[in-house]
What we know:
This protein has helices spanning 9-12, 31-38, 54-57, 87-99, 120-128, 132-135, 150-156, 158-165, 182-195, 209-212, 227-231, 233-249, 279-293, 350-360, 363-366, 371-375, and strands at 18-25, 47-51, 64-68, 71-74, 79-82, 108-112, 136-146, 169-173, 200-203, 266-273, 297-304, 314-319, 322-323, 327-328, 339-346. The chain is α/β, with parallel strands linked by helices and 391 residues long. The strands form 2 sheets. The protein has a 9-stranded mixed sheet. Helix 7 packs across helix 8 and helix 13 runs antiparallel to helix 14 (350-360). Mean pLDDT is 83; it is low at 248-257 and 381-391.
Amino acid sequence: xxxxxxxxxxxxxxxxxxxVSVLTGFLGAGKTTLLNRLLRDPDxxxxxxxxxxxxxxGLDHLLVEKSDGDMILMSxxxxxxxxxxxxVSTLEDLLKRRDNGRIAPFVRVLIETTGLADxxxxxxxxxxxxxxxxxxxLEGVITLVDAVNGEATLNxxxxxxxxxxxxxxxxxxxxxxxxxxxxxxxxxxxRLAALNPAARLIEAKDASAAKLFDTGxxxxxxxxxxxxxxxxxxxxxxxxxxxxxxxxxxxxxxxAHDVNRHDASIRAHCLRSDRPLDPRGFDLFLNMLREFxxxxxxxxxxxxxxxxxxxxxxxxxxxxxxxxxxxxLQAWPDADHTTRIVFILKDLTADFVDKLWAAFAxxxxxxxxDRAALENNPLVPGAGAGLFGQA
Length: 391
């Protein structure tokens, strides 16, 4: 190859990963109606929309520019494509078409899931596949909840609770069908806020691309990490304080004590620490959570202060046992240099997570965690029977 034809290492490096948002919601929640409206939005130009079946969406009345087999170009500039069986194959094929110039270079992907789907496997695909995680990055999860049947659906179907628990945006649909049911809508909003206080709640009539997307770590306009917006840790801490205060004075009357509710076992928790952790201790903390309690970590997002480089915090993002590769920021994004990790937990107490963190906090001095804090906790495998082996 001639000198002119040679590519520098920088040129061979893959382009920045494409943000991916996931649109989910239980059967009848209104995904079709919302998607039809979004497909008209100019803010979604240069967006690729992956749909399970075109026939369910009803695109006939929209202005279709061009149709090519499984792909439709909308007048707004959106490119719609059906998911052909395996999501991995579909995403890989679309990258090939994009890289070869056979389709427009889309800058965002929106994946619509089936109404019965637990969104976790879709999120795992984006976060864990060795090639896809280089070319795509999870931007956020948008979950629709039906105001008419939302309470009943949450009570009857655990999948709907998981859909709401992992969301970055919660969209309340069909409120216009309940013009006089103010208390019913308020009850559902309160329930969703308790289930996932970090998510922004929007009524479907007010939803737009500008309000639903760009929920990731980096501000798309400044390209700078906006940790405060991404984590919304203060909302989680406020909800925890309110729940603690309420349970202390109204014990037995709160919804959280209703064992028939699927969300009774799900809680949001913000771990905050002003003490930097040794990297070894943090690795052990995270690995133990993932290995033994992965299914209980519905969503984890955080910024972590580590003792090996106090000026450059670590950002983590996980869904159950699958985590994005951690990212070191070049600097703290604001004056708050404390560790803040937001958890959505299932069948796992906030107290357990905090005690596990404390157990590994002194590893830099002792090279062993606090054995008593771990071995006396019944949620740790081997607790009470010599977690670290016989002395």
